[in-house]
Amino acid sequence: MKIIVNNVEFPFDLGCRILKMKHKENCPLEQLQDFWDEIVPLSFKEIAQINNLEQRRVGILYLGIEKIISDVNPKLLSKKTLKKSTLWVDANGELTEHKFNDTYELYEVDGSYFNEGLRNGRGMDNCYYIRCKDTSTDREYLIWIDLQSVWNSNEIAFGNRWGFDKSKINAIQCIAWTIQTDVPIGSIEKIVRQGDCIMIKPKGKYTPLLSPRHLSEREYKELLIAES
Questions:
Q1: What span, in angstroms and rounded, lies between the C-alpha atoms of 195 and 227?
Q2: What DSSP designation does 124 have?
Q3: Pairing status of strand 197-202 against strand 95-109
Q4: What is the mean pLDDT of residues 110-114?
Q5: Cβ contact 199:193 at 8 Å
Q6: Cα–Cα distance measured from residue 215 to residue 217, given in angstroms and rounded to the nearest whole number
Q7: Is the terminal CB of the chain with fewer CB neighbours within 10 Å at N or C?
Q8: b or e along 162-193 (b: 16 or more beta carbons within 10 Å of the residue's beta carbon)?
């Protein structure tokens, strides 16, 4: 027997536990009512062991940020706040200056949360994520990142191409890394952000990169002129 949750097919037992994560005390299906109280919702560690990507995505969606954080007991590595000023359109349709503090937090999660149950092969290393808020809705987001790639994107600032040191990586470098572009370094005039939509204006003509690159901390702090 199968259960369809959020347009994704699950084995019956797994589907029941996924539904319990979302609906908690309120059973959504009459057929599950008799044993609903006995169903145990999944933990983050169990979700991380699901091989099917779409099933894992639904599990993380229903678990929620706060439960993920409490389950994995993350270690705070860096917390940075930028004081920002941008132009917003007010209720009267007029441009107004909006000042706000934008805080980013970089966390480390022990790889054992993902590796439990693995018998063969090399497990995952520790994982890292950025926690931040939407500047207009105050909704929180958790974004997984590749710390080595963050280092590579900022290696000029570190002054040592081969000396990877995670203690030197900060939260601003990580949030900058989440933005990609095919505009070469030094060819960006300005960046405007509206939610997930990133608009980058180049300096005149340029030759696009064959492979997109990640932004550096310097570009994020100096070239991002407006966001909403």
A1: 8
A2: -
A3: unpaired
A4: 76
A5: yes
A6: 7
A7: N
A8: eeeeeeebbbbbbbbbbbebebeeebbeebbb
User: Residue 20 has which token pair?
Assistant: 């319990």
In whole angstroms, give the CA distance from residue 213 to residue 177: 9
Phi, psi of 156 (to 5 degrees): -65, -40
199 pLDDT higher than 90: yes
Report d(CA 46, CA 114) in Å as an integer: 8
Question: Residue 149: enclosing H or E segment and its boundaries?
Answer: helix 147-153
What are the strands, taking DSSP E only, across 91-223? 95-109, 127-133, 140-145, 180-181, 188-194, 197-202, 213-214
**pLDDT at 118 exceeding the cut of 60:** no
pTM listed for this prediction: 0.76
What tokens were used for 92? 């009267």
- What is the percent of the chain where pLDDT is above 70? 90
Cα distance between residue 213 and residue 195, in whole Å: 20
Can you read off the two tokens belonging to residue 169? Answer: 């990586």
Predicted confidence (pLDDT) at residue 162 exceeds the cutoff of 70: no
Across all residues in the chain, what is the average pLDDT?
Answer: 85
Which amino acid is it at 51? Answer: N
**Cα distance between residue 37 and residue 186, in whole Å:** 59
